[in-house]
Please model this.
Amino acid sequence: MNMKRVTRSRPGRLIAAVVLAVAVGIPLGVTGAASAATPLTVAQALAAQDGRTATVTGYVIGQPTATTTVLTSGFTADTAIALADQAGETGTSRMLYVQVTAAWRSTFGLLTNPSLRGRQVTATGALTAYFSHGGLKNPTAMSLGGGATPSPTPTPSPTPTPSPTGTAVPDAYYAAAAGQTGPALRTALHGIIKVQTKLSYDQVWDALKDTDQDPAYPANVILLYSGRSQSKTSNGGGTNDWNREHVWAKSHGDFGTATGPGTDVHHLRPEDVSVNSLRGNKDFDAGGGAVAEAPGCYTDADSFEPRDAVKGDVARMILYMAIRYEGGDGWPDLEPNDSVSNGSAPRLGRLSKLLAWNDQDPPDAFEKRRNQRIYERWQGNRNPFVDHPEWARSIWG
Model:
């Protein structure tokens, strides 16, 4: 018997689409038909493993037989299927293991229906671990593609708009912030984005190779300040290598590289080793001498000015950090101010310049894709100022 196996993806490829119940429109503590009304992606279902009842749509990858093993041929039973948001998915960490109980096996068991592989299936059941892996158990409804209705009396579910490669702003994600301004908006956004998967510092390497990939040369990443397209494999500490730049300098709050703000990919970017060192922990402001290895960048004794194409990117990363890290989860309360002499205080400036840069350089396709990628594949949270740049002025004036 020829059995192909899909094995666990690298640790850095952990699914990170953590979604608050309010963010996907499901009230906390609600089960049954009411909570199953809104279909989730596989990423969202993996992030909501709390026993709630939900409807999930995904593509059939194969038959799970263990925590890290999914058969893609030579199926041995009709008792389980693995779903993913993309039909070609190979990482088990991005798959949802769905129990196929006796009522559904004649239609959805892979031993009986091997041609089901690659087709889209919608299932409703309890979001809870299966094979010690993110799963959906005790299904009460299953359908093909969200439209077919095989017995026993399954409930049809609409097919959701695929999200893995899109950049559309998920309105449901910001439901709690709708209509808010000023301090109320800030509080709402903090509550939304603080729910995330946290990466190790080693996992950041893999994340950056994905989030900062050069659209024209997929084997490369684009360096933040230099603007240079460089091989993904040339990361490290040598001359002309690229490394992990903390846009919110880690010494501003002394959080280092421990899991938390020190590994939050929303403010970590690839950069040339020497340019990273030259920027150091300087605040952001305009002016200074030209940076030879980073055309369009300038620096002086206490500040660094990024090139025009990423000025807004830098501003929005700093503003994200201020909203995400409010001091209530064991990390410093990060906040931008109008100083360029912040030292080790959990402050970073210059706020007036950052707000101007946010206005002058709106999010482009690269920044939007990056935000979406972090949301879908790595941390499960978003930078709200990439989705809504106007919120910066609403909060900081």
